[in-house]
## 1
Amino acid sequence: MPDPTLVTVEGRGQSGKTRLLAWLYERSVAQGGSPLLLDLDTHTPALSALFPPRPDGTGAMRPGSAEPEAQQELVALAADAMATHRRSVFVDTGGGEDRWLFHLQRSLDLSRFCSDVGARRLRLMVLGPTEQDLHYVATVLPADSDTFHPGETVLCLNAGRVPGDRSEGGAFTHILDNPEMDRLRKAGCRTVLVPRLGCMDKLVPGRLTYTAAKAGAAGAFAASMTRFWDGRTERAFLDGLVDLP
């Protein structure tokens, strides 16, 4: 049995974190995994809307309140389950304004915890083609932080935030040339360009999962587009040398 993985997605609000985590979660389930899913977004819990809690224990788990103590308690519960039952944990940390995970990591090195219990940590920093998104990521990942582990950190350039009249890669040229991005990449962070899904507007209003879209819930054309995007996204992470759970 492969080691379980603690996956967290971080970034500013509206960066596309939730949809990326949803894809990772659905991918894991489709491959026979039984990961735990945590929705810690106290403002717009979109992950819970996609995967509502069910009596059998599946679906997204939410904290009892918006207080940081409740969020930490839920993370601790899931982390114990990861260590004991060897189940991966997928965490939507909420919008950048929450910053609860940033403060938690001042008192707990999640990477060290994962190492102690024989698990992996995968920290996905999601950003669109804006200087504000990069500034947020650079602030959360200061060079002198004891909890910044570049080898487990992936900078996900989300082309889904790029306007349709611009090329996916070209929109991020100024981000890739930024000194802060250069610092992060030289430190050892990997970079993945997550492709744009042209029919995302068909998924979001009806809160469709990628699995449902690929099965035709949004029509045959959207199903074909989603399957094609699914393959491109898988290859993007493979090309970025990212071992997904």
## 2
Amino acid sequence: MCLGRYPCFNDFFTIAESAGKDYGGKNLNMKKINHFNDSVELRNLIISNPDLPLLVFCGEDSWSGEYPYELADINSAGVKELTLYKDYWMDKDEYEDQLVDDLCNEEKYKNLSDEEYTQMIKEKVAETEFVKAIIIYAG
């Protein structure tokens, strides 16, 4: 439910049918607020996963640096499992690839065969904690 003269949640995820309406002194004269065309998909993700955290990842194009906050386009959204590794959020495949690259030159792994090395990486991935969350990519 939206209160007052300001746009509600749905207004920012749909085509601006409200072009020309006055929202608190600001005129939203744009044909499209967001590239994420199907707001139903995002709403359903949130409704069907109420206990999952919501993580928003903003690309470098999402902020011009001119204003403290800017409206950014949502490129995609979905449920993923991520882990934080060296200050970067990665899914299982990205994490596995990164471990392969990071550990290949370590002395304790140099004597492993390719099969043993691959098995060791898979074990490290299996031991790692991943966070299941609703992920939104913006910008």
## 3
Amino acid sequence: MPLERREVVLIGDELTDAVRAHAHADPGMLPSGVIVGVAVNTDDEPIAVTIKLTGTRPDAEGACIYLQKEQCLPILIRFCTEHNIPVPRAGRKSVKILPLPLKSGTTRCLCLSIVLRPDAAA
């Protein structure tokens, strides 16, 4: 039986915007502060994403929040929902870290992978 596979890849500002939107919808996700950067780590690390925050006051120190791949799944699904990208309920969803070649060099991106099996709806 054929297998359908979809991948939604977020990089740079898209990923940062996805984290900001999810943090806005789920206020308990992050401590107070402004998100100034989101970095995707290498695939062999237990931590998938590092979120850098500044303090809410000029004299306050910033913080770094570390997320594992499983913790990134709701962020990616919310991004898809808000941008009208279909995410089938029956699909098996996972998060991957992929190298992405760019003109300026290779960077890492976060990828939502969805696998649909024809017999999944049955």
## 4
Amino acid sequence: MPEWIKTLVIALVSSFFAVILVEPVKAFIQRRTRRRELRRSLYHEMIRNYSELLGQVTIAHNNSEMKRGIGERFATVFKKFSFELARRDPATYYSLGHEMHWIELRYADMEHVINGKFIDEEQHLRSAESTVHLFLANIKDRKLSRSLIFSVSPTRLRTHFRELLGRRGSSKEHGDNSIKCLRKFEITPVTMKACRLVKAAIARKYKVGDHLQVKLSGGRIVQATIKAVVETTEGVRLQVSFGDETARIYEWKIVEEIR
């Protein structure tokens, strides 16, 4: 066999095995890189929205006149550009697994502060407080990545989270700490009891047997009766019945109280 044919065969075989081995590794690295960048952009956007909403809640507590229009003010700074871009890349987005579920819930909660219907300004403020509380609860319970939260947060905001969450420890150890005022990444030692009192306030307001008009997740509005007041890791939820059906709802799903 001529020498040039041997050289050609060796080159072809080498190229073949190089493609078989290198291309899958290259594709794997590219997928991991896209996934990492997608997560970082989502967390960065969520942190920004959280800080803005916490600022609005703090202002409303310090000035009762600022309770009015909290949704409108938050709407001017709320962002979901990274979230929308992530959903346009389903292969990478769905690779987040169960984490994707919690991310969607937190965006939905923040959008509800803007677009939801509320009985009065107090209920609107409690909804905003619950949204802040649930975001912190998800970090404490490791539903969202604590390490990534600290990685994408500015220095002052990392300090804020360390004071509320601690570097280590469970949510029971750190979950009842008072909220610090945060406005444009400036932390002031103003003691707030919002996160600690919101569950107790809801539990005191509603009792078993109360009649309510509630809005279900599909948009349907029904008249329901409270069967139980349940405390979960995500806050107080109301077990209600309507006809032959039952549902477990958040307090801000209530459209009207029927006396």
